[in-house]
Design brief:
mainly alpha, about 70% helix, disordered C terminus, two-stranded antiparallel sheet, single chain, about 5% strand, Lysosomal cobalamin transporter, about 525 residues
Amino acid sequence: VILAFCWVYIRKFQSRQESEVVSTITAICALAIALITSALLPVDIFLVSFMKYPNGTYKEWAANNETRGQIEDTVLYGYYTLYSIILFCVFLWIPFVYFYYEERDDDNMNKCSQVKNALKYTIGFAIVCVVLLLIGAFVPLEAPPGQNSTQWEKVQYLFEELGSSHGLPALSFSISSLTLIGMLAVITYTAYGMSVLPLNLIKGTRSVAYERLENTEDIDDVEHQIEKLKSKCTDGRPLSSRDRHNLQELEGKLQVLRRRGRHLEIAERNCCTKVGSALRPVKILLGIFFILVALLFTVALFISNLDKALHSAGISSGFIIFGTNLTNPLNELLLALQPVFPLDYILITVITMYFVVTSMAGIRNMGIWFFWIRLYKIRPKRTRPQALLFLCMILLLIVLHTSYMIYSLAPQYVMYGSQKYLVQSQMPTAGLTSGNATSGTTRICDADAPEDQCTVTRSYLFLHKFWFFSTIYYFGNWAFIGAFLIGLVVSCCRGKKSVIEGEVEADDSDLSDDEYVH
């Protein structure tokens, strides 16, 4: 299903004139890897929860520590595999394909030279990847040997540290470094997408007939200004440099308006506008639902961050909090849905996909930017291959940070799922016989639970391997809340978008119109 969705999505935005097999396959596979990785978190939570009964005791098949360890290792290997593939995509595969396609602009370059130049640029990305892996592998997480130890003992200690964790710190450090970039993408694109997607559904688009009338009036006005300028040289006198510049601008504007008119004519003939009118009530309800979900997420994230600010162990611990001290509505909702299987897992899956969908909407509406410079536009049927590769790389990075976002929304549930544990207590017996009776009380797993009674998700271990990354993520959540509120205000102040929003730009060529028609 994921591969089918990725194929349809990429083909929808892919330029028909500039499409290439290698870049298309790369984009589809990278997007599929991003979605599959995002789907691993609900599976991780489900497996640790499925080991226990609702009364807090382990199921027969999970009573053995060795069996539970094998299941946890299976999930861990799943994370290893997908995260390793993400590293391969971000540092090797996507950069190579991107630079290989960039070299195609030079007509005098053969295939061999293209490959050499692409490899030359890709080596820089590979070096960064190796450096991150080495830093993560040799950053000791425990106290090193004393000053009296020999150099060989210190080196041996580093290798023992690497071997004892099966390479987890190396991979975790590299992924956490990429997650920092993903955090910036989440603050930029996901926060804006959470506001613009529902409001666009609610407000709808402008009337096609009114837009055509308005565009016709603009064309007449520009043509009148052009004729007025050209009338200055009827007697043979040349136009001044200022008039020539204005004439060029007006002629360029006239071409854009005429191109816009052709697109509006196609949109008016297209039956999709009629279908869109019929689905208008559904879109409004869907938009209201999305905006309510966005507000719920923002409130839950604010409560979680406030709880960490008030009750965590501090900045030096990565704002790790032991238990939940403030009532988090989303966390409580997930815990309340536990008795009705599988509603809680369906909800956590929906939350994961919601972040992916809103991220796609944010990138679609904003385009791809490098600070204040817009690099690429994402438009149906006319998106360049380089832009699709950038899109998939951004989504890969966003998916990495999504796990921490969901943990921030529902920390207790993401850490332990629906696990419960049994607390044994001694109760004095009444009557003729003296003594104590043992009774059990079922509690929801939290940080105070015994280690052998509750299993922590593998995702949590990846997220909290290095405290300084958790600290940065914490402040990133505050920036995300601010970006969402700003985007919400901007989206509310903007009017209805055009029915051909983003389909006509000043730098488009006439060939792109033919591509749009077909």
